[in-house]
Amino acid sequence: IYGECRRLYPDQPNPLQVTAILKYWLGGPDPLDYVSMYRNLGNPALNVPEHWHYVSFGLSDLYGDNRVHEFTGTDGPSGFGFELTFRLKRETGESAPPTWPAELMQGLARYVFQSENTFCSGDHVSWHSPLDNSESRIQHMLLTEDPQLQPVQTPFGVVTFLQIVGVCTEELHAAQQWNGQGILELLRTVPVAGGPWLITDMRRGETIFEIDPHLQQERVDKGIETDGSNLSGVSAKCAWDDLSRPPEDDEDSRSICIGTQPRRLSGKDTEQIRETLRRGLEINSKPVLPPINAQRQNGLNLDRAPSRKDSLESESSAAIIPHELIRTRQLESVHLKFNQESGALIPLCLRGRLLHGRHFTYKSITGDTAITFVSTGVEGAFATEEHPYAAHGPWLQILLTEEFVERMLEDLEDLNSPEEFKLPKEYSWPEKKLKVSILPDAVFDNPLH
What we know:
Blueprint: H1 2-8, E1 16-19, E2 34-40, E3 51-57, E4 77-89, H2 100-115, E5 124-126, E6 140-145, E7 152-154, E8 157-167, H3 169-177, H4 180-189, H5 208-211, H6 214-227, E9 233-236, E10 238-242, H7 267-281, E11 328-330, E12 334-339, H8 340-343, H9 346-353, E13 359-364, E14 370-374, E15 389-392, E16 395-399, H10 402-411, E17 425-429, E18 434-439, H11 441-445
Parallel strand pairs: 4-8, 9-13, 12-18, 14-16
Antiparallel strand pairs: 1-2, 2-3, 3-4, 5-6, 6-8, 7-8, 10-12, 11-15, 13-14, 15-16, 17-18
Helix pairs in contact: 3-4
Domain Suppressor of fused-like: 28-204
Region (Disordered): 288-314
InterPro entries: SUFU-like_domain, SUFU_C, SUFU_C_sf, SUFU_N, Suppressor_of_fused, Suppressor_of_fused_euk
């Protein structure tokens, strides 16, 4: 990684660095060992301004001795397979780079380590706060390939460089409704909003749609209508209950392995959900859910890198049962629970994904449950028209017909007006045996509720 940075900055062999005082592998809170900060002179010919270039060290495997990441060989990804970068416009008279981007990168790294959700180009991060804790309108992030740093082959696997791009709320919403890559392309065409290298200017006061109103109608609205949404899933505060099974079944000793809902997603299910999300992010890919395969690892399903688990998160026996024993269950009636931010994405899921023959996944940020909505055109789902609600362990799939989707969109109309919203809010379709609740964040933050 240093070699790739030296190629780009031969005159800066010893850049300024922000260092984790107590390394993560010694019990410290910050997963990134270092963040290097370089001065980039830009490219006047391309209208690229001078800026600070930040590069993280720690999401990939820096050591190869299993102290942080499981060493899996040289062919696959190193650690999580990527490092983060960030380009911040240099203010006039600034002689040293601001250090707040390093803390921002540590925050994103903590999310990746805790959730084990990796990032891809085109992903978005809804942050809901100015990235530098100022009054800035730049309050969210998109991710894209760094325009200058090339993927590197290391002794411990491949590392790519994903650049953080600061965006306004309106740009984030457009990326959710359409797709991240489309909005990144628009940002590249507007010099003050990023330009070709997507440099973040925290003082930018206007969205790209205010700078050029035609972008909204001619590009984004048309793209949403034609393409639907390219967002195949989100990490969310969500949960689901099986209303068709009496709760005392949980205490039935015969169902301790078979048919119970394990507390955590198995490593296999987590990989399949990741694959589902990856496939959904490929433009023009066929809407296929990866099948549930009975692949075994010594007969057991172990969560990847158990050393990363929080000490409070004790492994239940259900997390390591042989994969074949967790059978797919058809459910009669289900209750879905979302916080307000996740609930606000349900219309997008229905209109932008299912009506276009695609799927959409909510994966709990605690990693212990997932909900995938599928349309009748999606292959490989274990939910069917005959049994529209089906669960494989804690992974629930819900198949919705086009007719029902249209009806739900009408009933969920007020989700589009969050300012008039009073929590908790409940929606119910008794004949479909489906209930959806929008609940305060506290319900999900406190597992005792």
